[in-house]
Design goal:
This protein has 241 residues and is mainly α. It folds into 2 domains: 22-84, Arc Repressor Mutant, subunit A (Orthogonal Bundle), CATH 1.10.10.10; 89-231, Up-down Bundle (Four Helix Bundle (Hemerythrin (Met), subunit A)), CATH 1.20.120. The chain is built from 10 helices and 2 strands; from the N terminus they run αααββααααααα. 32% of the residues are buried.
Length: 241
């Protein structure tokens, strides 16, 4: 791919030096690029190209790719090398099954102790932040604000071990989330769905909090599966991971 010779043009992947290590900066940049769908699922990640674009050494790029592979954002294909991780329907369904179980548990527990914890107010503010990010058309901010909402939900519920499990899946969850938030009118469904969860917690109604949380995850799962189905080439079969 041709590179612009304009000295004023800076590649958005290129990193600035700071107190963080080059590896940390490169990891943040490449992870964000994958979550923003700059690199699409199945796309090759060529070390030489990444070295040039990030402005770091090949050893740094290799460390970053290994880290992203551990997160589930990158996979290595024999005779091809690293690519952006692809999802098949079975794996997506499993991820959303785990989300539904853990988030519903957290929402139920949060509703049980909403009066003393002040969770409802904090969750309402977190949803406001998500809505502002949607209004600004800023996908990375949407992902960040959404993660903050769930961090608050699990923290207020006292489900720290469950949140550790969710965090271990967060890169893959956000990869899927980055696809669903690009769906037409997703904000007009997701915000009311999350408000429903928050309102059930405010009303101290564990059953409704559970139902609202499960319904929200079911909608996200359906959108992710539809995205994968529509993106799959007609002759690709069932796909691979």
């Amino acid at each position: 791919m041709a590179r612009s010779s304009d000295p004023e043009r800076v590649d958005p992947l290129r990193i600035d030096r700071s107190t963080k290590t080059l590896r940390e900066l490169a990891l943040e940049k490449l992870r964000a690029a994958i979550l923003r769908l700059v690199f699409l699922p199945g796309q090759r990640l060529v070390e030489r190209d990444l070295c040039e674009r990030l402005g770091v050494s090949r050893s740094v790029v290799r460390e970053v790719l290994r880290h992203l592979e551990a997160e589930g954002l990158v996979e290595t294909v024999p005779h091809q090398g690293p690519i952006v991780a692809r999802f098949d329907a079975a794996r997506v369904e499993q991820i959303y099954e785990i989300r539904a179980l853990l988030e519903a548990m957290a929402a139920r527990a949060c509703a049980d102790q909403a009066t003393t914890s002040g969770a409802a107010e904090r969750l309402s503010r977190a949803i406001d932040d998500i809505e502002k990010a949607f209004d600004g058309g800023d996908p990375p901010a949407i992902l960040e604000a959404t993660t903050a909402f769930y961090a608050e939900l699990f923290s207020s519920a006292g489900k720290t071990v469950a949140w550790d499990i969710v965090k271990s899946l967060n890169a893959r969850i956000n990869h899927l989330r980055s696809m669903t938030i690009s769906s037409v009118n997703r904000r007009y469904a997701s915000i009311p769905e999350m408000r429903r969860i928050q309102q059930a917690i405010a009303a101290e109604d564990p059953d409704e909090a559970d139902r609202a949380s499960r319904a929200h995850v079911e909608t996200a799962a359906r959108l992710a599966l539809e995205f994968l189905r529509d993106a799959e080439p007609p002759d690709s079969g069932t796909g691979a991971t």
